[in-house]
Amino acid sequence: MSNELKETGVEMTDNGVVIAESREPLPAGVKLPIYMDNHATTQMDPRVLEAMLPFFGNVFGNAASRNHAFGWEAEKAVETAREQVAKLLHCTAKEIIFTSGATESNNLAIKGIAEMYRERGNHIITQVTEHKAVLDTCKKLEKAGYRVTYLPVQANGLIDIEDLRRAMDEKTILVSIMYANNEIGVIQPVAEIGKLCHEKGVIFHTDGVQAIGKIPVNVQTDNIDVMSLTAHKIYGPKGVGALYVRRRNPRVQISEQINGGGHERGMRSGTLNVPGIVGLGAACEIAGAEMKVEAERLQELRDYLKAKFEKALDYVHVNGDMEHHLPGNLNVSFVYVEGESLLMGINDIAVSSGSACTSATLEPSYVLKALGLGDDVAHSSIRFGLGRFNTKAEVDYVSDKLIDVVSKLRELSPLYEMVKEGIDLTKIEWAAH
Ligand SMILES: Cc1ncc(COP(=O)(O)O)c(C=O)c1O
Question: Cα(187) to centroid of ligand 1, in Å?
């Protein structure tokens, strides 16, 4: 159905959510709703599913069963996956510990190191734009008597390496700085951070979730000691991840956080999720083989999306340094547009907004606030996460729709009108109510 145009109507999903309101004919190749939220999770690659399927069927052994063929077969699959993960990160298979995902990996890394090196010191350094799995873990450790420094970021989202140097003292045992940010896509100067940590004898952990499989990551040249990753951000299954733990130069030790049968070299007990681990391995192998071509394609689409916005609209504010940036990420503030109305206007497109729904309130994203954005600008921000299955036709549909909705909302915006008339909003004294 190459050039055929398809009529769409209001459609309901099983749980009653309206997914498409448009009665306009859709361009060829576009099916609603469009998924462009690949930092939240990714659709599983059919090749990954295929690799996993036998392990839901008759290959069901426990990888820890050492005395029969069912166990050996499961163990063999797990060890193949361990090799596949290690190859992507440029480490040895023995340095990979399987977990239930990156939340667990981050907890295991930070709490495990804090506990193991407690006698050496109690100071941990992280930064304000980390994922909650790092921030909340650090907050918990503060309650247990650790001292945590939360480094600020610059307006472009990157930390200043000199801030890190200044924050280090003789009690510092761990630095945890993410590789790439999940909201604004900026890539931190990881190799430099790792180098500084090694000079000072401090362990360097990085949350590599958003970087792995998207850009080349090499734990040797990046000077990384410990790194968290998860399968569901790289077209693998949910609920499985890994932690890289360096074994030489320096040998890092981690105190286990889940006790039990001593699996994963005693660092993480619990029967291994064999199908999930096989899926993670397959996802890593595919990512390694296709990363270069995929990254080029996604960056091209991302730049095309950005250029379309900048051509059609004014007051488009791109968030995060664009030079050190994930290929598939674009975070844009459509200034002078009311955030919630914007989201309502694009309900057939799955993207993330700069607002986090916390209980009943709509709070601006703490990551965008850390860049110095005001609440209103943060609320008017949208994160586009392009991924393996997005097409140019989808990017065209999404950009045209956004441009249309933003233009219409601005027609109704008194602030936008005032700005267009040359009034400086910062100089206005608003009447108090
Ligand atoms: C940067 C980052 N770290 C950690 C996580 C948590 O990963 P998981 O969903 O595997 O627990 C996510 C995913 O939301 C993430 O984006």
Answer: 16
Q: Supply the pLDDT for residue 396.
A: 97
What distance in Å separates the CA atoms of residue 236 and residue 273, rounded to the nearest whole number?
13
Copy the structure tokens of residue 424: 């400086």
Q: What is the rounded CA–CA span in Å between residue 21 and residue 99? A: 41
What is the separation, in whole angstroms, between the first and last Cα of the chain?
Answer: 58
How many A from CA of 362 to the centre of ligand 1? 21
Domains by residue range for the chain, with CATH: 3-43+291-422 (3.90.1150.10), 47-287 (3.40.640.10)
β-bridge partners, 353:
382
State how far the Cα of 425 lies from the Cα of 298, in Å rounded to an integer: 37
Return averaged pLDDT per consecutive 10 residues of the chain, 433 residues in all.
Answer: 39 51 75 97 98 98 97 98 98 98 98 98 98 98 98 98 98 98 98 98 98 98 98 98 97 97 96 98 98 98 98 97 98 91 92 73 89 93 97 97 97 90 81 64
* Residue 360 confidence (pLDDT): 60
CB atoms within 10 A of CB 345: 18
| Other CB atoms within 10 Å distance of the CB of residue 87 | 15
> Position 145: which residue type?
G
Q: Which of 149, 164, 235, 227 is nearest to 200 (CA)?
A: 164
Question: Could you tell which of 176, 209, 234, 331 is best to mutate to test the pocket of ligand 1, judged by most ligand atoms within 8 Å of the CB?
Answer: 209
pLDDT at 339: 78
Active site residues: 357
Tokens of 148: 């945590």
Closest ligand 1 atom to residue 180 Cα is 1
**What's the half-sphere exposure (Cβ side, CA atoms, 13 Å) at 21?**
9
